[in-house]
Amino acid sequence: MNSYQKNKKYGFPDPLVSADIKKSPDYGLKFAKAIMDQWGKMDAENSLLRKRHNVFNRNKLYANGTQDTTIYTQLLTSLDPNNGDGSFLNLDFTPVPILPKFVRIVVNKILSKKPYPNLEAVDPLSSSEKDIQRRKVEMQILAKEKTAAIAEKLGEGDAKTKNIPETLEEAEIFSQNNIKSSGEIAAQIATNLTLEWNDFDDNIFRRAVLDLVRYGMGVVKRSNDPNYGIVEEYIDPDKFIHSYTEDPNFNDLIYAGHIKTITISELRRLAAGQLEEEELQEIAKSTARNKGYDMTGFSKTNYDEHTQRYRYGYDEYMVDILDFEFKAVDCLYFESKESKHGNVGFYFKGDSYKKPENSVYEREVSKMENEVVYGGTYILNSKKILNYCLKSNLPKNIHDLSRVNLSYFPVATNLIDMVPKSMVDSCIGFADQLQLTHLKIQQAIAKAKPDGLIIDIEGLENVQLGKGGELQPLDLQDIYEQTGVFYYRSKNPEGGFQNPPIREIGNSIRNINEFIGIYNHYLRLIRDTTGINEMMDGSTPKGDTLVGVQQQAIAAGNNAIYDITNASMVLFKKVSSDIVKCLQVIPRESILYKAYENAIGKENTSLITSFSDLSLYNFGVTVRKEMEEQERILLEQNIQVSLAQKELDLEDAIAIRQLKDVNQAQRLLIVKRKKRMATNQQMAMQNSQMQAQIQQQSAAASSQARMQEMQMEAQIKSQMMQLESQMEMQMKQAEHEMRKEIEMLKAQALLGMRSEGEEFKEKLEVLKEDRKDKRVDKQAAKQSKLISQRKGERGELPEVQSDDSEQPGELDQIIDQLIQ
Fold first, then answer.
1. Mean of the per-residue pLDDT values for the chain?
2. Sorting pLDDT into bands at 50, 70 and 90, what band is 806?
3. Taking Cα atoms as reference points, which of 406, 396, 400, 405 lies closest to residue 584?
4. Burial of 687 by CB count in 10 Å (0-12 exposed, 13-18 middle, 19+ buried)?
5. Are 414 and 563 in contact (CB under 8 A)?
6. Is 274 helix (H, G, I), strand (E, B) or coil?
7. Is 517 in a helix, a strand, or coil?
8. What CA–CA distance (Å, rounded) separates 183 from 129?
9. Of residues 684, 686, 687, 657, the one with CA closest to residue 672
10. CA angle, corner 507, sides to 520 and 78, nearest 5?
11. Going by C-beta distance under 8 Å and a sequence separation of 6 or more, which residues neighbour residue 447?
C-alpha cells in the first residue's frame, strides 16, 4: 500500500485529478484539512500531535534540567509513613543537572567536528575534464627534472616546479581538493556563501543537532525568497507534521508542514488582500473563544495616521496557521505524428489529451509523469487558505528531472510509530531515580540527630553532694553539660560495680553511604545508556592513564553517539545538496542573481545558473568534517616527532596542518616522511661518496705534498751549499778588505798621533802657566787680608773669583779627552 492509500481514510483528495483541479484553492483546503484530521488537534488526548508534543515537551524539560518536581514530592510522601513530620520543608527540589550536562557534551562533540560541503561534478564531461587535469599533473611529475633543468638555463629558478608534487601518491592526495573543474569551484564558493549568509553553522545547525539529542529529530526548511534569496529556516520538531513514514531520513514523504502561531496583524500582512476585515474578525473571535482572550478588544478601534490604516483591538490575538506543501504527479502528454509529406513531428499536448480515433495520419502518444509541489497556508479551525499555488523554480534531481523534493529536510535517529526515540528519552527513568536519591540524601541530612547522651537515672540517684544534701539527676546533667566534669559512685548500694551513668552518642547520618552508592549507580546507568564515559567528558582525567586506553574509551563513546552524528551529517548533506540545486535555477533577471554576481563573480554565477547546461554539472555532495581537537593533538605529536628526527621539513609540516580531513593529513604525513627519508638516504649516500672522494683526494694530495717536500728539501740543500760557498768567498773578501783598511788606519793613526801630541804639549804648558798665575794672585789676596786685619792700616784686597770651567778636576777631564 502506498501512502495515499494509507491516508485515504482521513479524506485526502484524489491525487489523480487533472492539474487544473489541483491548482484550485478548494483542493488545497481539502488536503490541509485531511492533514490536520490525520494528526488531530492539540487539545485531543489521543491525537498524534498531542502524543508527540507530550514526549517532546517532557524531553525538552529534562534536557534543560527544568522538569516538574511535583512527582518527586508525591513519591517521597507515599514512601514516608510520617509525612507530617515537616522534613520535606528543608529539601531543595531543584533537579540535578546531570542530563543537561550530557546533552551539552554530545552537542559540542558533534559541533567540534565542523562539517563543510565538498562538491564534485559526477557527470561524464566534468569527469573527463578532471581526468585530463590529473594526467597533466602526472606528466608534469614525470618531466619535473627536465623542466627544472630548462628553467635553470632560462634563469627562472624553481618558479615553474615548486608547486608540482614530487610523487604520484602525493598528487593523488592533493587532487581530492585541488583538482576541480570551473563549475565545481563556482558551486563550492556559492554554496559556502549561502550557508554563511544564513548563519547556518552557528545558529540553525546547532539548534538542529540539539533537537536530535533532545527529541531524536531535527528539521530545517528552505524557502526561495525573491528578496532574501535562498533562506534556510529552523523548524521546531514539536510543530512539524508529515505523512506516514518509517524511514528515519524521511525520503518518502508525500506532504510536510509546520504549525506557526502568529498575530492577526501578521496574518493580515500575509493575506495581502486575500481576506476581508470581516473574515479576519471572525477568525479573531474563533481564536478568542479557544484561547480565552478578552472579548472587549473587538470594540477598540483607532486610526493610525502614520500607517494610514485602522488598528483594531484584536490585532494582537494569536492564531495558529499551518504552512504545508505536498507532492503531486501531473501527467504530460506528447504526440508523435506523421504529416502528409511523410515527416514525423513531436508535439506537446497538455495534461488531458486523448488520441483521436480513426485518424488519417499515424499517431503515437507518449505520457510523462512529472512530480510537482503544491503548497499554501491554512488557518486552523477555519475554512480559509492563503497563498495556495503550484510551486515554481523547484530544485530538480539531475538524475531524473521528472522528480522533485519538498523544501523540508527532516532527519531522525530512529522512528517508532511516528515518534522518534531520543537519547534523553532513554535516560529519563534513571534521571528520576537519581533525583529521588538526591532528595533522600537531603532528607537523611535533615533528619540527622545532633550529638546526644545516654543517661542512667538510677546511677545518678546514688550521687550525693555532701553534708546530707543530694542533687537531682537533671541537675547533674546540667553540671555535666556546662563543665564536662561528672562525679559518680562506681559502686551501687548493693556493693556491686556500675557503669558510668552518662555516656555520649556520636552524630551519624542514617544510610548516607548507601544513598551515595545508589546515586553513583544511577549515574553509571546514565553513562552506560548515553555512552559518555569519564574519558570522553574529561570528568576524571588521570595522568597515569595510557594513551591507548584513552583512545579506546573515546572510540567507545563515539560509537555510542554515532546515530546522532550520522543523522546530523545527513541533515547537512540534504541542505547542501538542495542549495546547489536551487543555485542552478535562479532566474537571470532576478535581484538575487545580481547579488550572487557581486559576491562570487559574473563568470562563476553564469556557470552554475545556466539551466540549459545542467547536464554539464551533475553535482554530488559529500560532507567532510574537520579534525577533532584530540585528532589534531595526535597529528601534531606525530609532526613534532618527525621534525625532531629530521624526517619532515617545516614547509611540509605547515602544508599538513592546513588540511581539514585527518585521513588526508595522515596520508600526506606518511608520503612526506617517506620522501624525506629517501632524501636523507640519498644525501647520506652522497655524503659517503664525497667522503670517499675527499679521502682519495687527500691521500693523493699528501703523496704529492711529500714528493714536493722532498724536491724542496733537495733544492734547499743545493741552495744552502751554494750560499755557503758564496758566503765563504764573501767572508774572505770582506776579511781582506778589512785588514787592508786596518793597516791604512794604523798608518794614519801613527801620523796623526805625532802631530796631536805636539799640540797637546803646547796647550798643556799654556794651561799650567795660567793656573800658576791664578794661584799666585789668590795667595797674595789672602796674605793682604791677613796683614790688613792685623794692622788696620789699609783695606783688604779683593778675592779673585775662579770660572766654572776652571773648577778643580776640569783639567784632568780635558787631559783625558785630549788623550782619547
1. 77
2. very low
3. 396
4. exposed
5. yes
6. coil
7. helix
8. 11
9. 657
10. 55
11. 87, 510
β-bridge partners, 316: none
**Comparing 55-64, 615-624, 807-816, which segment has the lowest mean pLDDT?**
807-816
> Could you give the CA distance from residue 98 to residue 444 in angstroms, rounded to a whole number?
22
Per-position b or e across 744-758, b if 16+ CB within 10 A of its CB: eeeeeeeeeeeeeee
Contact 588, 609 (CB under 8 A): yes
Closest to 49 (Cα-Cα) out of 344, 409, 320: 320
- CA gap 165, 763 in Å, rounded: 114
Q: Is the pLDDT of residue 616 over 50?
A: no
Overall pTM surpassing 0.85 (yes/no): no
| Cell numbers for 171 | 598528487
Domain ranges for the chain, please list them: 254-405, 431-507+525-556, 662-819
Instruction: Return the half-sphere exposure (C-beta side, CA atoms, 13 A cut-off) of residue 92.
Output: 7
Q: Grid coordinates 559518555 are at which residue?
A: 532
Among candidates 270, 245, 303, which has minimal Cα distance to 384?
270
CB 170 within 8 A of CB 119: no
DSSP codes joined into one string, 722-773? HHHHHHHHHHHHHHHHHHHHHHHHHHHHHHHHHHHHHHHHHHHHHHHHHHHH
Residue 496's pLDDT is: 72
DSSP string, 65-97: T----HHHHHHHHHH-S-TTSSGGGG---PPPT
Which DSSP letter does residue 377 get?
Answer: E
How many angstroms separate the CA atoms of 652 and 673, rounded? 9
Give the three-state DSSP class for 469: strand
**In this predicted model, which residue has the larger pLDDT, 408 or 509?**
408
